[in-house]
Amino acid sequence: MCEIETCIKVIAVLLALITLIKGVIEYAHQGAQKRAERFIEMRKRLKDNKTFKEICSMLNDNDPKLLQIERQEKMDFLGFFEEIALMLNSGLIKKEVAHYMFGYYVIQCWESNNFWNTVSRDGTYWVVFKEFVKEMEKMEAKFKYNKSKYRF
């Protein structure tokens, strides 16, 4: 009789452990799914915003037309990338993914004097952007594709 009770207790503990493990796995998958959704939303905002799209195109060649972009549009563009930086700082986006998908434009923007003609690059409110640029430049300098790092 005692052996049956012991077996039942062992089975109950195993079932509880399996349930816990399944719960943890499901929780991790939900987190990855939410990160992917948020990333896709941000990527879509960049690609679907006409002004952002034009600025990105102009940044490719440091086009002098950047001088004509309104200050508020530039600030909105910078603010978008600060949102990406905050997501990175909060662990919602991996560093490698942020670099691969957004780093090019962040670096191009920082290096473009034509972009910064109406916005102070050293302004207090662009500290998050500036730190994001530094991080992306480090990533750019040592970039090497590793499939395992590019996932949600």
Word description of this protein:
With 152 residues, the protein is an all-alpha fold. The protein has one domain. 72% of the residues lie in helices and 0% in strands. Helix 4 (95-111) crosses helix 5.
Give the SSE layout.
Layout: H1 2-48, H2 50-60, H3 71-89, H4 95-111, H5 127-141
Helix pairs in contact: 3-4, 3-5, 4-5
What key phrases describe this protein's structure?
single chain; 152 residues; mainly alpha
Work out the count of structural domains: 1
**N-C termini distance:** 51 Å
**Percent helix range:** over 70%
Count of helical regions: 5
Summed up:
The protein is mainly alpha-helical. The protein has helices at residues 2-48, 50-60, 71-89, 95-111, 127-141. The chain is elongated and about 85 Å long.
